[in-house]
């Protein structure tokens, strides 16, 4: 009878240790993924801000008529590509 009690006790202790270690690992993994996502979000926002500044500077330097012709040419290319 005693070996069954010892075996059961060992199984319970092993289960508790496994649960604690698994929870700890899951938490570290999740925090790492969140940190990576936050870094990527910052990078994307920084790129967007740089692109917005460049577009703003470009639009200030370029006359409106030229901007409109560029937009029309771009639309024509898109239409031609869609028809092909």
List the SSEs and their pairings.
Elements: H1 2-61, H2 64-83
Overview of the structural elements:
The protein is an all-alpha fold and 84 residues long. The chain has a domain at 2-59. It is 95% helix and 0% strand. It has helices spanning 2-61, 64-83. The longest helix is centred in the middle third of the chain and has 60 residues, at 2-61.
In brief:
With 84 residues, the protein is mainly alpha-helical. The protein has a domain at 2-59. It contains two helices and no strands.
Which labels suit this protein?
84 residues, mainly alpha, rod-shaped, 2 helices, 0% strand
Report the radius of gyration as a whole number of Å. 30 Å
Tell me the major beta sheet.
none
Mean pLDDT across residues: 89
What is the global morphology? Answer: rod-shaped
Assess the beta-strand content as a share of residues: under 5%
DSSP summary: helix tally: 2
N-to-C SSE string, H for helix and E for strand: HH
Structural class: mainly alpha
Uncertain spans, ≥5 residues at pLDDT below 50?
A: none
User: Count of DSSP E strands?
Assistant: 0
Helix content: over 70%
- Spatial separation of the terminal alpha carbons: 82 Å
